[in-house]
Amino acid sequence: MTNRYAVILAAGQGTRMKSKLYKVLHPVCDKPMVQHVVDQVSMLSLQKLVIVVGHGADKVKSQIGEQCEYVLQEEQLGTAHAVMQASSNLSDKEGVTLVVCGDTPLITSKTMEALLLHHEETGAKATILTANASDPTGYGRVIRNKEGNVQKIVEHKDANEQERTINEINTGTYCFDNKLLFQALNNVSNDNVQGEYYLPDVIEILKKQDEIVSAFQTDSFEETLGVNDRFALSQAEQIMKHRINKQHMLNGVTIIDPGNTYISSDVIIQQDTTIYPGTVIKGNTTILSQCEIGPNTEIKNCSIGEKTVIRHSVAHDSSIGNDVTIGPFAHIRPASTISDEVKIGNFVEVKKSIFGKGSKASHLSYIGDAEVGSDVNLGCGSITVNYDGKNKYLTKIEDGAFIGCNSNLIAPVTIGKGAYVAAGSTVTNDVPGNSLSIARARQVNKEGYVDRLNKNTKD
Ligand code: UD1
Ligand code: CA
After folding, report:
1. Per-residue pLDDT tens digits for 91-102
2. Structural domains of the chain ordered from first start
3. Measured by CB atoms within 10 angstroms of the end CB, which terminus of the chain is less buried, N or C?
């Protein structure tokens, strides 16, 4: 089998994005564009993957990690110049090299595999992936000769009026015979409108050397969308969103309004879960079967068990069990562990806390830095007073404890197993198990007081 290599071009600044963030790091469905490309390319079996970095090199490298080789393009003199930077990694290798732009986040491994197969079957020395664009503005155009074979690529800015009417575009993805590629790159000039070394010029150079040059047209222009500005970024987002949602639906997830549901690329959702409109699910999130999520819910980096219901709420970086109900209007902040059958109700905020099985905080509470046992009932308005302005302290509420409404538990403090805290208490000392703590002023009724008051004021 032929050796296969790949080069991803990711050195550009992305001037047209008008952004401090380097172009290839702009996210599409919560994942940087270049990461989408790397993930898809990595599904092909390759001997080597080389990434050309320049602007934001360190950031791009730390995003992608150690799984590939990096070369630095110090000055961005064009796409041909970019590929040349990989010369010391690749130029002496026998095989086929796939070149992909880091700003085409929708390209799939399936299409790249088809391109590679076509290239290998035709015996071509270069094969260019083309597509028909209804609006080809900005793309390089594919110029074919009378026989219909690819002759060369002309960049939009260099194209004459007649060439600009051509709808077949260069998608920026190609395969080359590796050795011929690096030889041809030496002959690319920068004699063009932009004064850059264009990679597509390699096509014409090889053609003039009488090598076989081929084109492989994909019928999905969408997949080859190049993101140069924020408008194209929004188009990529739409297409990727549709693709992700469709895949979940085909896997057995009900999405009530896919146009208004935002799920990141790497989220896992099991079947018979229903996602209601206005829901955003991000990061490294897993949701098991038969859950109901949303409407209007934001979840990031959470693992969620089965049959859990989360409505109108926010949950981040936490673990949530089976048969849990959360919301409406609850906030689960990072490092929380919510066990099975827990109820977190209206206007309850939980931070860095553990809730044991079956415990409830149904209304209007703040529970932070707390270890709540199982079957605990936190009455309406219960608050863990965890912060003294300098440090945070732990509140422990042991199994089966009952915290009356509107209580303040001033940490560090422990409420023992099965203990009761009377409503309205401000608890500063530990409460032993199975005891009742009343920490509030005793009620005094002054009978007839108002009558006496009224009488005095009339005099
Ligand atoms: C390029 C192609 C064009 C094609 C289009 C497809 C060239 C000259 N033109 O145009 O034919 O239709 O892609 O989307 O190749 N980059 C570097 N170093 C550089 C220049 C660019 O690494 O010196 C990287 C960029 O980061 C980007 C990619 O190469 O990821 C493409 O560069 P870009 O400037 O976006 O090229 P286009 O004008 O879109
Ligand atoms: Ca581009």
Report:
1. 999 999 999 999
2. 4-224 (3.90.550.10), 326-334+347-459 (2.160.10.10)
3. C
